[in-house]
Amino acid sequence: MEDINFSHYLPLSEATFYVLACLHEPMHGYAVMQKVDMLSQGSVSIGPGTLYGAFATLERQGLVVKLREEERRKVYGMTDRGRRVLAEQVRRLDIMAATGKKTLSLLQGGTA
User: What's the confidence (pLDDT) of residue 112?
Assistant: First the structure.
């Protein structure tokens, strides 16, 4: 397994995070746009320009790969490196969420 310098990839933007999160199975762009909206509960909406810009960057970084083209639809999948980067981003977000919850609890007079 390759060593990854996560500082080259992280932090992920919200849109990029959701694009990677969608690719647990191969998917074409339009399906990714719909799934991002669903996974983010409508808080993140990405258009074709943003999506295909993200795909180009992620492909260049080796985090996703174009698997095939079906008619005019490009189908992408996540690489092992992409999975590891996503896992590291989630680990970092867990730390941030725990810190935020602790801070809010202290502000409300609770003990953390």
Answer: 53
Residue type, 52: Y
Q: Which tokens go with 103?
A: 């801070």
What's the burial of 101, exposed, middle or buried (CB within 10 Å: 0-12/13-18/19+)? exposed
What are the pLDDT digits (tens) for 65-108?
Answer: 999 998 889 999 999 999 999 999 999 999 999 999 999 999 99
* Residues 98, 104, 108, 109, CA torsion sign: positive
Q: What angle do CA 54, 56, 57 make, to 5 degrees?
A: 65
**């698997």: which residue's tokens?**
67
**Secondary structure letter of residue 43 according to DSSP:** S
